[in-house]
Amino acid sequence: MGNKNTRIPQSTSSPPTRSGHATTVESAVVIDQIKNKDDTPTMKDLNRYVISIYAVDWYNIGIELGIEHHVLNVTEKDHPQQSVICFRKVLDKWLKLIPNATWRMLEVALTNVRRQQLGLYPVDDVYDGKPTQHAYFVD
């Protein structure tokens, strides 16, 4: 699973904002300091450095990570108003579904969720209909 050489900062993040969502800076702080973003995160690392910061957005992050809606709905039903537990279950499911999951994949999911919260939506690429990584517009 994870590479034991992955270096994670001890305490680089601040608590979520009053709205409950991590700020843009907080969204990048922990993952930006990961030495090798191609390493697979461990549940221990995710519990320690990610879950408490982003738990409020667990459902949307789950969607970005490719977890099916019905799985997220069952998780929500089994653990109502328990976002930390729900997020832990989502990340555990993600690591099992994608054995080669990386910090970089998680970073992309967190960034996409944050862009959605800010009202930024991807512009469709005219060639293949897929969202581009660099073109965004505001409502």
Core attributes:
disordered N terminus, single chain, disordered C terminus, Death Domain, Fas, mainly alpha, 139 residues
Provide structural commentary.
The structure is a single chain. The chain is mostly helical and 139 residues long. Strand 1 and strand 2 (131-138) form a beta hairpin. The protein has helices at 24-32, 43-49, 51-54, 58-64, 69-78, 83-97, 103-117, and strands at residues 120-124, 131-138. It is globular, with a radius of gyration of 15 Å. It has one domain (24-138): Death Domain, Fas.
Helix content, binned percent: 40-55%
CATH class group: Mainly Alpha
- The helix-strand sequence is HHHHHHHEE
Spatially, the strands of the biggest sheet line up as 1-2
Q: What is the domain total for the residues?
A: 1
Strand segment tally: 2
- Distance between the ends: 40 Å
Q: Identify the overall geometry.
A: globular
Q: What percent strand?
A: 5-15%
Low-pLDDT parts are 1-25, 123-139
CATH-scheme architecture:
Orthogonal Bundle
* Major β-sheet profile: 2 strands, antiparallel
**Tally the helices: what do you get?**
7
